[in-house]
Design goal:
Blueprint (H helix, E strand, L loop, with lengths): L5 H8 L13 H15 L12 H8 L8 H11 L32 H22 L1 H19 L7 H21 L3 H17 L3 H17 L3 H12 L7 H17 L3 H11 L21 H14 L3 H11 L8 H17 L3 H18 L2 H14 L6 H13 L1
Helix pairs in contact: 2-3, 2-4, 5-6, 5-7, 6-7, 7-8, 7-9, 8-9, 9-10, 9-11, 10-11, 11-12, 11-13, 12-13, 13-14, 13-15, 14-15, 15-16, 15-17, 16-17, 16-18, 17-18
Length: about 400
Amino acid sequence: MISPNTVLSEARHRLSSPVRPGQRMSRSELADAVNAALDRIYPSRDVTAQYVDSRWIGKLERGEHRWPSEARRKALRQVLGALTDADLDLYSPRRSDGVEAQGPVVEPQPGSWDEAIYLLREQWHLLVQNDKMFGPEYTLMGVKRQLATIEDTLSRVPEALRPAVIRLAAQYAESAAWLHQSLNDHAAGHRRTRQALAWADEIADSTMTAWATYRSSQQWLSSGCAARAVEQAEAALLHDPKLPRPMRAALRVQHAHALAATGEHQSAMRLLDAAHRWAADRYPGKPEGEHGSYCTSGYIEVHRGACLRLAHKPQDAIEVLDRALPAIPRRHRQDFASALLIKAMAHAAAHQPDQAAAAAHQALPIARRAGSRRVLHQLAQLGATVSGHQQLPEVHAFLNDLQEVT
């Protein structure tokens, strides 16, 4: 499947036209700049065979071609201020085994600004993994330190590299918003989301704008403001055609959940059906930790269960969740605990307090190890719901352990 290379087109849009003041660089102007860069990079070679035109740039931006020659890639990186091919979403074609091979990584010069940006970007990937392993409280300390470093860097970085640093700032701020959400700190989560949106808007980065708006929708839904959650989900989807496939799936899942909370149940189901088209597990080979990489078919179906519960169909929700739970990787502890919580809530809605307590009891140690105060808080709310049935062994055991944890 061909998908637009929005990363490359956005990099072009961030550059000013050399001849039209106040306007963005056109494809023709980018082609001219690439050709000039080829001459600079290879002064002793005849590189006219490598020259490009606006139609070639158009094919790259439409995603019809993803792996130009090494010389052309080098020129593109220099003109667009990218450190690696991956920064422009350039990669070699799929191998026969269906896995996208990664292109050679261009290592930055030691001690350079390029190296600093490269290391900050790599650290973000590491912190995403830390959240899975050590939980949000530990990870948030690292994210805050890196954000302080990035803000200090912004005051000193050369102007040509400033957009790359601002994008990193937005990325870290959005991650901080998610971590605050996990820690059940709604005010801090909203504050970090606004910060991420401001930085993304400064460089007209539609991908980060969409993702931070998606996060805002999640936060409003968690706060009980379903109508605001719908507004934010619809605002995120305005960027839909330009986004990577797993992100398109995640945005539809969030829109569906928000709509279900407002009573728009049929629309929610249609959106979940559509989300499967872009599910992360349909396109293997993408690096773990990229935005939306968790939005697999199983994740979508867990949210179908959540929407069915909101539609007052708890038994249907339980059946869907029973099928979906095995598809959630156990290392994604917070997602797995959330899925068990949704199942427990469905059992409670179906007037099955013993089964609700059993599912919640299973979720309790997982949520504790994941460090998710958000899930623990919701489990405590469920405990209050089933507390009138303490004569049932499952309820009694769950409430005893819940009291110890909370």
